[in-house]
Amino acid sequence: MISGYMLMGYIFMFTALFGSVLALIQRDLMKAVILIGLEGLAVAFLYQTLRAPDVGITQAILGAALLPGIFAITVYKTRREEE
Amino acid sequence: MSLESLFQPMCFLTAAALVVVGLYAVIFMDNLLKKIIGVTLISDGVNLVLITEGFNKMVAIISPDMFEQGVISQTFENLKEFPEFAAQAAFPLPSALVLTSIVISVSIFAIMLALAIRLYQEYGSLSCSVIFKEVEE
């Protein structure tokens, strides 16, 4: 019998993998940045499932909020479409 | 093999897949921003390997009822010990290391993105082939 905790962990692994693959095949760079934020959030929740909540909180702030912010500033300063 | 005993190997596989996808992006993608995204994926994968190493798969979730009934400590008065909790908790050293690693990696990515903006101002493109062609001329 699988617990809901483990099931959530499997869902987050799936989300991290597919978010990263989908981010790399986008032509629009802003969509890629948003999908990178999704991948960081999934990894943050996976850290929570692996019983490292301090790392999960730090990853949720830096990897899922601050890093897509800097990427979005870069996309805004340069061009949005990939040539 | 139940699904619960496979949890830690599946975490290792996820980390390995993240590193592979990131390496593919760094080597084969043409856009500079996609390459930097690949570096973030590699960093996430390596951090996930370290965290999964410290995970103890025998852990059960401590409920509040179980937390009430601790063992009375012999050395200190009015203090409860939780020997089962201490035996089942995750290993704390990798999380202490990864906490530093995440913070440092974000600052490294900020520097990389700033240099990417500077390259765009210099050459007018983020494509690596265009930048290399301009450099050679």
Task: Note down, in words, how this protein is organized.
The complex is a heterodimer of chains A (83) and B (137). Chain A is mostly helical. In chain A, 81% of the residues lie in helices and 0% in strands. With 137 residues, chain B is mainly α. Chain B has a single domain (3-55, 90-136), classed as Helix Hairpins (Orthogonal Bundle). Chain B has six helices and two strands. Chain B has a two-stranded antiparallel sheet with strand order 1-2. In chain B, helix 1 runs antiparallel to helix 2 (32-53) and helix 2 runs antiparallel to helix 5 (92-123). Classes of the chains: A mainly alpha (83), B mainly alpha (137). Chains A and B meet through helix 1, helix 2 and helix 3 of A and helix 1, helix 2 and helix 5 of B.
Structural class per helix/strand content of chain A? mainly alpha
Largest sheet of chain B: 2 strands, antiparallel
The first-to-last residue Cα distance of chain B is 61 Å
Number of strands of chain A: 0
CATH structural architecture of chain B: Orthogonal Bundle
Task: Please summarize what this structure is.
Chain A is an all-alpha fold and 83 residues long. Chain A contains three helices and no strands. Helices cover 81% and strands 0% of the residues of chain A.
